[in-house]
Amino acid sequence: YALFTCIFLMVAAALAWSRRHRRDAIAAIAAIAAIGALAAVQLLPSILYQRSAGDNTIATRSLADVESYPLRPVVMLLPVTGHQLSPVREWRDGLGAPVLQSEGFGEALGAFGAVGFVLCLGMIGARLAGRRCSRRYARIADAPLLVLVAVLLASYSGFATLLGAAGFTQIRAWNRISVFIAFFCIATTATLVASLVRTRRRLSMVMLPLVCVAAVWDQTTVSSVPDYDLAAKQWAYERTFYQSIESTLANGAAVFQLPIVDFPESPAVNDLVDYSQFAGYLHSDDLRWSYGGVKGRRADWRLRLDTTSTGFVDDLLITGFTGVVVYLDGYADGGAAIDTVMRAAGLLASFDSANGDVRFYDLRPALADIDDRMPFKRQQDRRAELFDQPDVRFESGFYGRENLAGTPFRWAQQHSTIVIQGPVPDIGDSFIRLEIRTYAPGDWTLRVQVDGDEQSFEISDTPTEINVAVDLTGDPVELKFATDAPLDELSDPRDISLGFDGLPTVAFEETP
Asked: When comparing pLDDT for 274 and 132, which is higher?
């Protein structure tokens, strides 16, 4: 919104300068400078952190992101989804075409704003026809131009796409400029209504509240009102559950949360919606939680855990966790597979939440004989495998990280590249472990080129662990993948051939 404001101020400055209103132009430029300075101050901590910790590729937007959230003018002119008038609601909700869908439900201008939009178009036409604007409309004389600039800039394949092609992709949700468009359109309609009743004081006193009530009614829906009773019950269930965990474990105990969900921005995992796992922070004071570490940073060590293995519990114990919370909505089987893993480790569920959507396991009973199951040297090696890992960069041929049933993965094309870079441990000859599957069923060949040497592996549509021999001497290691597994040509518009589960892991043992 800071950028949008500066764009409109630039237009205003240009208009003022062309009309010889130099003071107004300077004021607009000063406002742009002030907004820019404040934005820089707000971003400074992030800039300094990136300089010390390195850039994070998840914060880098692409041209495809710009085209994912464009402004759709037709959506602004249609009634709001879920309109209170049933015939309008049924007609609007029945328009399910993708071109009529947007980021959210807030773009509709409503009847009052839509009238202003049409008026702005009419005023532009009148200007082109050489007609001058009436003095009574002088305050909103430039509103049509600002609306036109916004539409041309932010619409699908508009000038924002051209900016993105030039490298300016960090601002992706250009559809949010609709807030400004709504303001200009409403101001235009309001000015027209005011001019019509300007000489009729009593009528204007009645018109103002009527128009306001009608506009609010037109723009609000039943879904605008939260279910307060349901929210209060859910809050009470969560508070009791998490406070029970806090009273069970020691102060400062670490609790691992399943399924493993990325932060920020993760699609729903089955029925578990994004950010649900923050509830632990809200209802406890002294516990530590695994969710919330930023993806692309050190929190990605969780992706090296195998939640289906009997060694999963031991991995959690040696990394300091003494409890596990399972969000059952995140699993298609309601957590049955995880419960099997826990039972294999000799653990039973301690208790569930009152509404049965979350389950807690106390890991401390399995801590007593951890040294018998995993010798101290193996514990050290395993911690190194989980934590002391170099950075992994998914370069050409890879798509963004997805989450399927709590298992993060990436799709890749037939030719793709991974770069393992600093801090790379100087351990010489070693192996990089990967878990790979093909999209197409059957057995296929994967070729991996490292430093000019090619290694071949047999893979299939079931997850296959491969160990790529590498020489880790401190320099970045580039792994180039090529496969004869065909692309998906039916169900996905992307060129997907390979699936990479979790993260590549440097093996610290002598043998793979």
From this structure: 274
CA distance 112 to 232: 36
- Least Cα distance to 265 among 411, 410, 402, 367 occurs for 402
What lies within 8 Å, CB to CB, of 354 at 6+ separation is 236, 237, 240, 241
Pick from 38-47, 165-174, 245-254, 454-463: least confident? 165-174
Mean pLDDT computed over 226-249: 94
Joined together, the tokens standing for residue 149 give 């600039």
> What 3-state DSSP class applies to 471?
strand
3-state DSSP: the chain helix, strand, coil percent, rounded to 5? 45, 20, 35
Tokens 């015939």, located at residue: 87
DSSP β-ladder status, 415-421 and 477-483:
antiparallel
Q: At CA 24, angle to CA 21 and CA 25, rounded to 5? A: 85
Mean pLDDT over 177-201 rounds to 85
- Residue-level length of the chain: 512
- Run of H or E residues at 192: helix 178-196
Hunting for tokens 């607009």 — which residue is that?
28
| Residues 500, 410 contacting (CB under 8 angstroms) | yes
At 133 the pLDDT is 66
Residues in CB range of 297: below 8 A, 6 or more apart: 53, 56
Look at residues 264, 327, 328, 256 and name the one whose alpha carbon lies nearest to residue 292. 264
Q: In the predicted model, what is the mean pLDDT of residues 389-413?
A: 82
Instruction: Please report the DSSP string for 351-385 in residue order.
Output: EE-TTSSEEEEE-GGGTTTHHHHS-HHHHHHHHHH
Cα(321)–Cα(226) distance, integer angstroms: 36
Are 170 and 160 contacting, i.e. CB atoms less than 8 angstroms apart? no
Return the closest-CA partner of residue 416 out of 440, 441, 392, 384. Answer: 392
Please give the pLDDT value at position 190: 87
Q: What is the pTM of this model?
A: 0.78
Q: Distance between terminal CA atoms of the chain? A: 52
Q: In what order do the strands lie in the sheet with 254-258?
A: 288-289, 254-258, 321-327, 358-362, 351-352
What sign has the CA pseudo-torsion 7, 12, 17, 22?
Answer: negative
Residue given tokens 């060129």 in the structure block: 495
